[in-house]
Write a structure and sequence with these properties.
The chain has 566 residues and is an alpha/beta fold. The chain has 18 helices and 20 strands. It has an eight-stranded mixed β-barrel with strand order 12-13-15-16-17-18-19-20, surrounded by four helices. Strands 6-7-5-10-11 form a five-stranded mixed beta sheet, with helices on both faces. It has a four-stranded antiparallel beta sheet with strand order 2-1-4-3.
Length: 566
């Protein structure tokens, strides 16, 4: 190509147009087609056959060849590479460009190569700057696994901070129940697959009208149309999520706090919505039946009470303000005391804190596990004392919260406490509440099996309240079936009720399987007669005694039995 004034002017004019078009793009008035047109004209002027750009997020991605490839120009002629330029940004992103010349074209002059180098570097600076903005946006509003971050959520709230912007919408904060067990059982990669599949499905359900963001781990927040509330909550209550390429799934349940945003609500402070859904979420983790709680103003006062309990608990446990009470378990035929359930009572400043006030609060964290082991320790102390004094000792059952299930060493820890007090294993019974997920189910199976090998009696508490009750007693080798009071018929005249039919069949099935049976909440002689007629073994309830302090229970043990007159 000859070097003359018109050629230089033509190149200079076209280069100025290219720079101007790039400046327009950077100002936000994007016209990518104009930039592409200028590049195509310059490539033709400089006798190039093709231009290829590679964009990498890091040098490591460059080495692996995993970046984005952009064909900026291609006239269809085969050629060889004649020049390459590479730029690495301050955020370690890398952009390279290589240009090609057709084999039938004469060699490029030094001036042409200089012009090509100038155009390439200018273009790469433009691409790198815009990619840098993309990367900065990615870092700011997405986490390292590609999930929208909490900053995305607050930005969404800020952009919609006008009256009525959230009419017809609801917000939620949720996370998976016992997700660590999924990672432990199936591996981290499968756990990540479950997380991503769950997230993708939630995004699909929410649609473009709302937003879903990850706070970290398996903890998420979202805003979505109210009309989708029911289907979203159904998915959060239980979802079978795929974790491998073969289509295998694992059941996932979630804790969730929900705020139905009132019409006309204005987001004056983005933290207001976040505070409401996080508060109701924390209440949900306390162990409500379906693990989903809707925000209301009454939760604020409950939060203050919960904070006081959480603050007082460590010192109260250390100072032994928690005392163990015993509610007798009675043979329905003879009235003999065959055992008791250990229950905790909190004495603080000359008053009793009701269990319904502190147990749900402790259930929100691992504090409940500390209380469970405290009660077990106290029970073993009492049993050891009775044995040393030559008193009659009966089997005492201790409740263990579902929160303990995540403890891989739970049965070893329980055995350690019992052995430390030199208590015969047959004098301790561990009550475990039936589960609602298959992940918990497998963990429960492992725990019960471990206790069984050591000769420690296990019972399933609140039988009939979970979704997999029959499978629970079919697969897991329990000793005792504790039937929830919801199965107990109202009275003898209630013989034709569904409750009575179910009660009779549950007891018969348990007896056929060799399980000892006990019914809690027995309050009337009519109910006791129904237990006897259906060959139930034990009864527990106010008909015999409320939970008793240890001194009172020891007196009952000396008396040995209750007088039953039916």
């Amino acid at each position: 190509m000859a070097d003359n004034i018109s050629d230089t002017e033509q190149f200079s004019g076209l280069f100025e147009e290219l720079v101007s078009a790039m400046a327009v793009v950077n100002s936000g008035q994007i016209d990518v087609a104009e930039v592409q047109d200028k590049l195509n004209r310059m490539a033709a002027m400089l006798r190039l056959s093709k231009g290829v750009t590679h964009v990498y997020s890091s040098p490591a991605e460059e080495r692996m060849g995993r970046g984005e490839t952009i064909i900026s120009y291609d006239n269809g002629k085969n050629g060889r590479p004649v020049h390459t330029v590479r730029i690495e940004t301050s955020l370690m992103s890398v952009t390279t460009m290589t240009v090609y010349k057709a084999d039938d074209e004469p060699d490029l002059t030094e001036q042409e190569l200089a012009r090509i180098d100038l155009v390439m570097r200018t273009t790469l600076v433009f691409i790198s700057r815009n990619r840098l903005q993309d990367i900065a946006y990615q870092f700011a509003f997405y986490d390292d696994q590609g999930y929208r971050s909490i900053r995305s959520f607050f930005k969404y709230l800020a952009w919609n901070a006008t009256p009525g912007a959230f009419d017809g919408m609801a917000a939620a904060n949720y996370n998976f129940r016992h997700f660590s067990i999924v990672n432990d059982k199936y591996g981290r990669n499968s756990g990540d697959r479950v997380l991503r599949n769950h997230y993708d499905h939630m995004q699909k359900l929410i649609g473009k009208e709302g937003i879903l963001c990850r706070l970290g781990g398996d903890n998420f927040v979202c805003i979505f149309p109210r009309e989708k509330l029911e289907i979203l909550l159904e998915y959060l209550r239980h979802a079978d999520v795929q974790y491998d390429d073969e289509g295998h799934t694992v059941g996932i349940d979630s804790y969730a706090g929900v705020f139905v945003i009132p019409d006309g609500y204005t987001v004056k402070d983005p933290n207001a919505i976040m505070g409401k859904i996080m508060l109701s979420y924390r209440v949900a983790r306390s162990g409500v039946d379906d693990h989903i709680v809707f925000y209301n103003e009454g939760l604020m006062e409950g939060r203050k009470r919960a904070m006081r309990i959480q603050q007082q608990f460590p010192d109260s446990l250390k100072n032994k303000e928690f005392r163990v009470f015993f509610q007798p378990k009675v043979d329905v035929l003879t009235g003999e005391i065959r055992g008791a359930e250990a229950l905790s009572r909190w004495f603080r400043e000359n008053s009793i804190v009701p269990p319904l006030d502190f147990i749900p609060v402790l259930e929100r964290s691992s504090d409940i596990c500390m209380l469970d082991f405290y009660v077990l320790d106290r029970v073993c102390e009492h049993i050891r004392k009775w044995l040393d004094e030559g008193r009659k000792a009966v089997r005492i059952s201790v409740n263990f919260s579902r929160k303990n299930i995540v403890n891989e060493q739970l049965h070893e820890d329980i055995i350690g406490v019992i052995n430390r007090h030199r208590v015969p294993h047959e004098l301790v019974e561990i009550e475990l509440t039936e589960t609602t997920t298959d992940v918990e189910f497998r963990a429960l199976q492992r725990i019960v099996g471990g206790l069984q090998k050591e000769g420690i009696c296990t019972s399933v508490d609140d039988f009939g309240m979970g979704y997999s009750s029959l499978n629970l007693i079919r697969v897991i080798p329990w000793n005792v079936l504790k039937v929830d009071r919801c199965f107990l018929p109202a009275g003898e005249e209630d013989n034709s009720s569904i409750n009575n039919i179910m009660f009779k069949n549950v007891i018969a099935m348990a007896k056929e399987m060799g399980l000892e049976t006990i019914v809690e909440g027995v309050e009337t002689r009519e109910q006791l007669k129904l237990l006897r007629d259906n060959k139930c073994d034990l009864a527990q309830g106010f008909l015999f005694d409320k939970p008793l302090p240890v001194e009172e229970f020891e007196k009952r043990l000396e008396e040995h039995k209750y007088i039953i007159g039916i």
